[in-house]
Amino acid sequence: AAFFFFVIFGLAALCKPTANRDAWPAKYALYCLLCAGTCFIPNDPIFMPIYLWVARIGSVFFVLLQQIILVDVAYNWNESWIEKADKAEIDEGTGKGKKW
User: Fold this and answer.
1) Which of 53, 50, 52, 40 lies closest to 1 in space, CA to CA?
2) Residue 52, pLDDT score
3) Cα-flanking dihedrals φ and ψ of residue 46, to 5°?
4) Digit-coded pLDDT (tens) for 7-43
5) DSSP letter assigned to residue 47
6) What totals of helices (H) and strands (E) does the chain contain, helices first?
7) For labelling alongside 61, which of 31, 50, 92, 96 has CA 20 to 30 A away?
8) In sequence order, which residues have a C-beta less than 8 Å from that of residue 84 and are 6 or more positions away?
């Protein structure tokens, strides 16, 4: 449900850039309807094996993407702290106490 919700509103944002800020009640209603609609999808012969493989492959990509984002945030955070420490050392002098 969430995948279809984001695809629908991603396409809407491409067509109308202000669509992300407009129609919040419609977004909430559509999301709730999509979540409730997933209860009525039959599990029998076709849907379950397809969903199983989509979920397995999607979860691998999700975990890899999260690891990349986590490492990127850590590197950016480190660079920010190093820049602040270097700037404070230049402004205050070496060994003057508070750095930043």
Assistant:
1) 40
2) 84
3) -100, -45
4) 887 888 888 777 777 777 878 888 888 889 888 877 7
5) H
6) 3, 0
7) 31
8) 99, 100
Report how far residue 47's alpha carbon sits from residue 55's, in angstroms, rounded to the nearest whole number.
Answer: 12
Closest CA to 38 of 47, 25, 50, 27: 47
Residue with tokens 């979860």: 59
Instruction: Give how far Cα 38 sits from Cα of 26, 42, 61, Å.
Output: 18, 9, 23
Q: Which two tokens stand for residue 92?
A: 């205050």
Q: Which tokens hold the place of 45?
A: 């012969």
- Provide the whole-model pTM: 0.51
Q: pLDDT tens digits for 48-96?
A: 788 788 889 999 999 999 999 999 999 999 999 988 888 888 887 776 6
With contact defined as beta carbons under 8 Å apart, do 3 and 13 qualify? no
